[in-house]
Amino acid sequence: MPRGLERLVAWGGWPALASGSLALGLYLTTAAPSLTWAHDSADGGELLAAAQTLGIAHPPGYPAYLLLLHLWTRLPLGSDLARRGNAFSALGGALAVALFASLLTRCLRREGSAHPRLTAFLGGLLAAAMPTLWGQATVTEVYTLHALFFVAFWSLLWRADGARRALLWLAGAGLVAGVGLGNHLSLALALPGAVAWLLWRREGRGRALGALAGGLLLGLLVYLYLPLRARAWPPVNWGNPQTWAGFRWLVSGELYRPFVFGLSGAYLLPRLGAWAALLREQFGWVGLALGWMGLWAEGSRGCWRRLAFLGSAFALYTAYALGYDTTDSYVYLLPAHFAFAWWAVQGLSALAPASAKGLLDGVQPSVARAVHWGAMALLGASVGLGVVGAFPRMDLRGDGEAWRYGREVLSEAPPRALVLVVGDRQVFALWYFRYGEGERPDVAVVTPNLWPYGWYRETVQHTHPDLEPEGGPLPEDLGALVREALAAGRPVVATEEAVRDAAALRAYRPLRRAGTSLYDLRQP
Q1: Which helix (H) or strand (E) is 514 found in, with range?
Q2: Of 345, 341, 319, which Cα lies nearest the Cα of 109?
Q3: Most exposed residue of 158, 308, 373, 524, measured as fewest CB within 10 angstroms of its CB?
């Protein structure tokens, strides 16, 4: 072997670099070219518009995500805003994979596992090929960054064990968790396991918990972004959290509270079946078998602290996703899937000859070696075949439905139009083009879905003051707004979904505009 290649193989960082680079290449190759609704990413248009204008996204506000995405979109990458947002997700997913492979390398080397670097590399590839992570890495959403924060928190907790400056590592873990909660509040489900991890220490438990809590509180300061930016009245300004009431409503997620463990008992068994099928889809039969073997191996050799952290994360994220009453709750399983990927690697490592994990105790060394290398080959082949099989449905290079919808509606709207639109997909697509890309500044986009909320009417008034020339508050009745606009000679148009779903608009004799997808509203 050439000396340079030999040094590269011996270098402990190559599994992270290689698996992360391959993941990034895969994700960028299959990423959507612009705005997309694929992989349950309808929120992408709203997130991009909020990041571009430094606004406030839907509850709980996502301050950390918006700040990071805003900084990313300032880079001179030479593509449209949505494409840059998709690339940001790809980068987050690839970094999560790289950090996971790095953590595996360190742990396997510390435990004296056979071929730790190669095993960690396979573990990185296994994580990179998980369809849920892959799908989220091709669209603009918060979940690959959520996975990165979870793995980073886990890695820092592990690094603190036995380190000279353990309290500093724990404070760093707390800081990552606090900022990560500003990306997605479900990162809180990783905290009980972290507390159990620290309580299992032989000494210094109080100081360890204090360091973690101190870093956590510091990281949570990212939520100050919400009231500070709300004062600037950005066009995307959910909850208008300038007041304590608005801040509490936004951050508590009160709007979505009925969905939390809101799944009807009649749907629990089908949801459990879907969960099991999804787990198999992430890892294939080989990875699934190795995962359960690894979980058994961890317990059989008394890795109780690690089991407390990963087991509680796996259980809590699974319970949360199972009980959350939406069709896209599967994305909350990403941390649980990373935990299972860890167990799959531990199962593979436990098959090595003379392994301390003892799965092949008493087996002849030659047979054990054959089983171990055979399992590694099977896992590698399983990952490769999984990527090939999933590629057609993951490949979004030809996806343009959301982009076409937003462009067509805004281009068809008459000058100075009041455009009424309903549905998350449709509303957020128009927000993206109107406020994110800054197209058609003469047009006001209003959704009847949010009109009952005072904060929304105030935001619309500050964004489009010409809707109420006399400066008074906009009417609580959407019909009154339409009447006033028509009386002032302003065109009022509605999308097909708005005409169908918003009962208040039917009195205005909607008439399809020739050659467009919009309906003109006229005085009754």
Answers
A1: none
A2: 345
A3: 524
Residue 183 token pair: 């990306």
d(CA 169, CA 98): 19
Average pLDDT on 411-427 reads: 95
d(CA 487, CA 481): 10
Residue 4 has pLDDT above 60, yes or no: no
Q: Are 38 and 399 in contact (CB under 8 A)?
A: yes
Mean pLDDT, to the nearest integer, of 149-154? 98
Token pair belonging to 479: 């019909």
Q: Which residues touch 268 (CB under 8 Å, ≥6 apart)? A: 322
Residue 469 or residue 296, greater confidence: 296
pTM over 0.90? The answer is: yes
Sign of the C-alpha dihedral computed for residues 319, 322, 325 and 330 taken in this order: positive
The reported pLDDT for the residue numbered 354 is 54
Taking each helix axis as running N to C, give the angle between helix 44-52 and helix 401-412, from 0 to 180 degrees, rounded to the nearest 10.
60
Contacts of residue 242, Cβ cutoff 8 Å, sequence gap at least 6? 227, 230, 231
Place of tokens 């105030």: 458
Collapsing DSSP states into helix, strand and coil, what is residue 34? Answer: coil
Torsion of CA 485, 491, 496, 501, to 10 degrees: 10
The Cα 321–Cα 327 span in angstroms is 10
Which token pair is 46?
């709203």
**C-alpha to C-alpha distance for 13 and 101, rounded to whole angstroms:** 9
How do residues 167-209 score in pLDDT, each as one tens digit? 999 999 999 999 999 999 999 999 999 999 999 877 788 999 9
Q: What is the 3-state secondary structure (H, E, C) of 491-502?
A: CEEEEHHHHHHC
pLDDT digit string, tens, across residues 375-396: 899 999 999 999 999 999 999 9
The answer to whether 517 touches 426, Cβ cutoff 8 Å, is no
Q: Give yes or no for a contact between 40 and 328, defined as CB atoms under 8 angstroms apart.
A: yes
Q: Which residues share a beta bridge with 512?
A: 519
- Whether omega before 465 lies within 30 degrees of 0, making that bond cis, reads no
Are 30 and 397 a contacting pair, CB within 8 Å?
Answer: yes
Under 8 Å between Cβ of 517 and 409: yes
7 vs 36: CA distance, rounded Å: 43
Helix (H) or strand (E) holding 485: helix 478-487
